[in-house]
Specification:
Elements (H helix, E strand, L loop, with lengths): L1 H11 L5 H4 L3 H25 L4 H9 L3 H4 L1 H4 L9 H22 L5 H30 L2 H36 L4 H26 L14 H16 L4 H10 L2 H15 L11 H30 L1 H12 L1 H12 L4 H29 L5 H30 L1 H10 L1 H10 L9
């Protein structure tokens, strides 16, 4: 049996195994990206429709970033119990159960406490799935296959965003039409459907995921050794050249976006008498979840192509300038309040494309800055800090909006772009060829 699994592993990690990898790499990447979309984007719309204030919506949902922030600390502990394949399958069935729990509690009197509990279960489970899936790719694919499937993985992750923020929200909106405005029943059915998606992914992967030869439990590594190693790695990260400027860049570059990304979906669906655009869920799913996502993809592709040709130092200023457009666009929308879906779609497309293009500068800096020794661990720490930079402003975004109103809030995000320009001016860019 062991010999059979080794042969299977060798087959899947050889160039000839590329065809077999198509059966699980896209679907695993889709399953990996979907929980974060549900927790960070779909939950905003759900809680807003359930009648929560903007303050409560942004506060509750921003805390769900926490498991992804803690990933560098707990991810090594996954190696102590079972295999990466075992963890992938376990977390997928737990995600199905968690979203099923959300669906079950929505019609109840304790819907808020119940949905928050199961969303938190989904958050920790989704972050664990991310850790296990990333490790499994490295074990089940050789270097050539990893490079080949990198673009496929990114595309599958984008499709997960379109499915979650676009298709699921549109489904919930259409169900509300069918069931004559029953918001609770419609969202309950939507989350039951989402639970079914994860159960289907679990069934698929239980058959299609290979048994990689090096995918095994490491019980001989102690928890104390893992924590000691993390502390030492974190110390080396803090001793990197230019760490003060780098930390300012990592923590403050996305300050305006962090506030805007939490409130802009609420603005799109909020009633006109509250200063919003009053989009129905199905309209929001089309505009933000589909058209906007296409804009992000196009902007990111153009940004990556530009940096690959001219380098980050050359493109940093144009990218920061483009990154400054979204607050301007939403400020204009808050004064204009157009009732044309086509106009709103074009505005969101430009806003998302600008974000995708400008954000390339940030992501490329993380890659360049963390090259060298401990690059994987250092990049994980930097990614956790990036998530923290989104969580902290998100906690107060809703209360700021309710205190200022949409127009003044968007003006504030425009003013805070000055912080982005400031940290971009002081950071030291080391191009790939200089390292």
């Amino acid at each position: 049996m062991v010999r059979e699994q080794e042969n299977t592993s060798q087959e899947n990690t050889s160039p000839k195994g590329t065809k077999a990898a198509w059966a699980w790499v896209p679907s695993l990447s889709f399953a990996d990206g979907l929980p974060l979309v549900i927790l960070m984007a779909v939950s905003l719309i759900f809680y807003k429709q359930m009648g929560l204030s903007n303050t409560a919506v942004t506060f509750y949902t921003s805390w769900m970033y926490l498991p992804w922030i803690l990933k560098p600390i707990w991810s090594p502990f996954i190696d102590l119990v079972k295999t990466k394949r075992w963890w992938v399958l376990l977390t997928e069935i737990l995600l199905g159960a968690a979203f099923g729990g959300v669906a079950f509690t929505i019609p109840t009197s304790f819907w808020l406490q119940g949905t928050l509990f199961f969303f938190w279960v989904a958050a920790f489970t989704g972050a664990s799935h991310c850790v296990a899936a990333d490790g499994f790719y490295l074990l089940a694919l050789n270097e050539q296959q990893q490079a080949w499937f990198m673009g496929i993985r990114q595309m599958a992750d984008r499709l997960a965003t379109i499915f979650g923020q676009g298709v699921l929200v549109m489904v919930a909106g259409n169900l509300q039409v069918i069931f004559r405005g029953s918001i609770r029943y419609s969202w309950s059915l939507t989350f039951y459907g989402l639970a079914g998606v994860f159960l289907a992914l679990w069934l698929w992967h239980s058959q299609m995921l290979p048994h990689a030869r090096n995918d095994r439990q490491h019980p001989y590594v102690s928890a104390r050794a893992i924590l000691t190693g993390f502390v030492l790695t974190f110390r080396t990260f803090l001793r990197k050249e230019g760490i003060i400027q780098a930390l300012c860049f990592i923590m403050l570059f996305r300050l305006s976006e962090a506030l805007l990304s939490k409130v802009s979906p609420l603005f799109l669906i909020d009633a006109p008498h509250n200063g919003g655009l009053g989009l129905a869920p199905q309209e929001y799913g089309l505009v933000q979840g589909t058209v906007g996502m296409v804009g992000v993809i196009i902007g990111s592709i153009i940004g990556g192509f530009a940096v690959s040709r001219g380098g980050l130092r050359k493109w940093l200023l144009p990218m920061v300038l483009t990154y400054s457009l979204p607050p301007v666009i939403y400020l204009a929308l808050s004064y204009w309040l157009p009732d044309s879906l086509a106009v709103v779609s074009v505005a969101v497309f430009i806003e998302q494309a600008s974000t995708g293009f400008g954000l390339t500068a940030y992501m490329m800096f993380l890659i360049y800055y963390n090259r060298g020794e401990f690059r994987t661990s250092h990049y994980a720490i930097a990614s956790a800090l990036m998530t923290l930079s989104l969580m902290l402003p998100g906690l107060m975004a809703g209360s700021l909006e309710e205190m200022l109103g949409y127009r003044r809030f968007f003006f504030l995000t425009l003013v805070l772009i000055a912080v982005t320009w400031g940290v971009a001016a002081i950071v030291k860019i080391k191009e790939q060829e200089e390292i």
